[in-house]
């Protein structure tokens, strides 16, 4: 397995994002239960969040993140970087 840091950045209003919050949390919870998320959470300033995926490839990371409701409905944009866990 490889690790991928997914940094998301809010591009929609908090009100628009709130409409999909439950769906987003359900999706993240599903991935966590499948063992594909090492850690995840929002930035304190509300600007987006961080998800660390444990998956086989960047292509798999892309496929998974593209199904997140926040991404699917263009409420956030994202960057994926392969990450080397040191600790």
Written account of the structure:
The structure is a single chain. With 87 residues, the chain is α+β, with helices and mostly antiparallel strands. The protein has one domain (2-83): 2-Layer Sandwich (Alpha-Beta Plaits). It has 4 helices and 4 strands. The chain has a 4-stranded antiparallel sheet. Strand 2 (37-42) and strand 3 form a beta hairpin. The radius of gyration is 12 Å and the shape is globular. The model has no long low-confidence stretch (mean pLDDT 97).
- State the total count of DSSP E strands: 4
Order of strands across the biggest sheet?
2-3-1-4
Uncertain regions spanning at least 5 consecutive residues: none
Number of helices: 4
Percent of sequence in beta strands: 35-45%
What is the CATH-assigned architecture? 2-Layer Sandwich
User: Biggest sheet, in brief?
Assistant: 4 strands, antiparallel
Q: Which fold does the CATH topology refer to? A: Alpha-Beta Plaits
| Name of the CATH superfamily | Dimeric alpha+beta barrel
- Tell the overall outline: globular
- The topology string of helices and strands comes to EHHEEHHE
Assigned CATH class: Alpha Beta
How many domains comprise the coordinates?
1
Structural class by helix and strand composition: alpha+beta
Distance between the termini: 16 Å
Helix content: 25-40%
Average pLDDT, to the nearest integer? 97
- Alpha carbon gyration radius: 12 Å
């Amino acid at each position: 397995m490889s690790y991928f840091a997914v940094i998301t950045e809010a591009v929609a209003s908090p009100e628009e994002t709130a409409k999909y919050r439950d769906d987003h949390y359900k999706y993240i919870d599903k991935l966590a239960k499948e063992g594909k998320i090492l850690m995840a959470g929002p930035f304190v300033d509300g600007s987006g969040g961080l998800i660390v995926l444990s998956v086989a490839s960047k292509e798999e990371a892309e496929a998974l993140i593209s199904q997140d409701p926040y991404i699917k409905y263009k409420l956030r944009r994202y960057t994926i970087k392969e990450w080397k866990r040191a600790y």
